[in-house]
Amino acid sequence: MCEAMVQGFLSKKLLSSKSITVAEPRQERKSELKQKYKLNITSNNREAAEACKILVLSVKPQDLDSVLASLKGALRPEQMVLSIVAGARISIISKGLAHNAIARVMPNTPAQIGEGMSVWTATPSVKKQQLNQARIMLQALGKELYVNDEKFLDMATAISGTGPAYVFLVMEAMVDAAVHLGFARHIAYQLVTETIRGSIMYAMKSGKHPAELRNLVTSPGGTSAAALYELEKGSLRTVLARGIWAAYERSKSLGEGKGPAPGV
Ligand SMILES: NC(=O)c1ccc[n+]([C@@H]2O[C@H](COP(=O)([O-])OP(=O)(O)OC[C@H]3O[C@@H](n4cnc5c(N)ncnc54)[C@H](OP(=O)(O)O)[C@@H]3O)[C@@H](O)[C@H]2O)c1
After folding, report:
1. Which of ligand 1's atoms lies nearest the C-alpha of 86?
2. Average pLDDT, the chain
């Protein structure tokens, strides 16, 4: 994710490679990043933290405690931390770093190609100018939305953060059904991806409500009506809503430090 951010900063000329320092523990990856982007690279997290104005925290949640411990007390009050670590509450990061100016972001995987949707918030210690800087940085990953309460991040986790998983599942199911009908897999994939992409573009450009668009393609006694009847009978809406609620509850319990789900 951090590499996607770096690519965005450099391609949009928001920052020069010399002004970015990356802390990376693995030698092989350090060399790769150095060669690819000509960044300043260190394996010392504290050294990177002390040098920066904005510290981006982009480690896996399981590595967070040790990284926070390695950085505790290293930051000056005027520095800002931008955390994209899924599920990590501001209070945990603030306590772990002994630092108050923190912005917390929930990005999603399309951010890796600059098509993400990031929802974020910040503590009152983050200054207006830093909020603007954070906004510009997040725009390197795609669209961003500021919310004024951290509780919205759990909701966003269930919609935009986890959303790509729902979309990929629907894609997979449609491709499999197309193969079942008799299409070759690569044709099935093209038909499904182009249909989803085109439908989203159409919905966004027309500005019409999805129900109106659906009605427009549903002619009396037609194929859409037959398919929609079966989808509603199979409780598609209820199942989707239940999935979204489950992701929301899971996000809240992860934020409270309740570890992996039972059976995982
Ligand atoms: N992937 C997504 O689309 C996505 C979406 C939403 C949120 N997020 C969040 O974004 C964060 C990063 O995810 P990711 O998918 O980009 O993970 P990733 O590719 O594993 O990146 C994590 C990076 O942290 C480095 N690292 C590990 N231990 C470290 C340490 N002690 N000190 C400094 N650096 C260390 C890793 O180094 P190595 O090169 O040695 O592994 C790696 O470069 C996660 O918290 C995730 O929850 C990701």
Report:
1. 47
2. 94
